[in-house]
Amino acid sequence: MPSNPAPPLDRLSALLDRFRVRAHLFHAGALCGLTHFDAQPGRAFMHVLRRGEMVLTHPPGSGAPPKIAVSEPTLLFYPRPLAHQFSNAPSEGSDFVCATLDFEGGERHPLVAALPPVLVLPLRSVEGLEPTLALLFAETERLRCGQRLLADRLFEVLLLQLLRWLLEHPEQAGMQAGLIHGLAHPKLAHALTAMHEAPGAAWSLESMALAAGMSRSAFAAEFKQQLGSTPADYLLQWRVSVARSMLLGGASIKSAGEALGYASAASFSRAFALASGLAPRAWLEQQRQA
Q: Counting beta carbons within 10 angstroms of the beta carbon of residue 124, is it exposed (0 to 12), middle (13 to 18) or buried (19 or more)?
């Protein structure tokens, strides 16, 4: 008798439920000549080149290629703050829609940290975007009631569709070792999603491996290869990421530690300091001053 297929796995909802993202349309139309976008703390950019061509430039040492030529409809995604500049001939004005994206947690957002400085993806290579882009372009072509609000939500849908595509095509998108590769893995994804959904559970190497359907040794080796960290280190970073969000939202150190599975406020503080370099109270004070 054939075995039952594994149930579908939602690899993104737990991440985006805990660390939300909000999009804000700020430009629709032509860009002519030289256009500069400043890096802003905690802010990402998404641009869709609908028609035309241009050259992107990035500052030295940014981790992004110094210059990229774009000559076809393309999606450009800057997940972290990065100054960038577009140059195109005024007589050949390119048609864009552009939005900022504010990720909860900023650069500490787990998905943001897993992505390269810039993604440059021709629209023809990313399946499934056409209906969303058609709606987005239709909304930006003429003023209608609720236009900006709907366009903002469509950019958020576009981001989710892009992340889905990255999980299905990590090599094609040039993803390095990290969370995207882990979530793309047919077995590791089960353990990662379980940890994301229940960070306060009593996780051990054995229970993580069981969630992935692997032996402990095979799981540990594959996890390190795909994510570039050990399962224990990843779990620590994930718990502390959740803790930061809880503390900024007003949770007490005691309640955050209890929710994340720590036996005492002291053990939670030690784990937090190990991952952050600061105890929770000192880190929270630093954030408030910033």
A: exposed
Tally Cβ neighbours within 10 Å of residue 250: 7
pLDDT in tens, 17-48: 888 899 999 988 887 778 899 998 889 999 99
Q: How open is the CA angle 58-61-65, to the nearest 5 degrees?
A: 45
Task: Look up tokens 């190497």; give the residue.
Answer: 205
**Distance (Å, rounded) from C-alpha 161 to C-alpha 107?**
20
Going edge to edge, which strands form the sheet with 54-57?
33-37, 84-88, 54-57, 67-70
Tokens of 111: 């998905």
Residues in Cβ contact with 171 at an 8 Å cutoff, skipping those fewer than 6 apart: none
Classify domain 199-289 by CATH architecture: Orthogonal Bundle (1.10)
Domain 13-168, CATH class in plain words: mainly beta
* Interatomic CA distance for residues 55 and 226, integer angstroms: 33
Q: Could you tell me the pTM of the whole model?
A: 0.87
Q: Work out the pLDDT band at 176, boundaries 50, 70, 90.
A: confident
Domain assignments of the chain as residue spans, ordered by start = 13-168, 199-289
Q: Where are the beta strands (DSSP E) in the chain?
A: 21-31, 33-37, 43-51, 54-57, 67-70, 74-78, 84-88, 94-103, 119-122
Is the separation of the CB atoms in 280 and 269 below 8 Å? yes
